Amino acid sequence: MRSLALPVVLIAGLALSACSGLNQTEQRVLSGGAIGAGVGAAGTALTGGCVACGAAIGGAVGAGVGYVIDQTED
To answer: How many Å apart are CA 12 and CA 2, to the nearest integer?
Structure first.
């Protein structure tokens, strides 16, 4: 778990730092995707599943949720 935590945190930090030139929708989709990927990877690592699969599914769901939240708040 520790060997996975550092790369996930670094990737999430880099992804979120690139949000400065994006519009609000793009920021929410990217942030949702990064948070979803982190949660998906951590969840599958704790349960003994496929970490890459969990990160991919979590990222997709998070990006979708970020988009829906942005559309409902406009």
So the answer is: 16
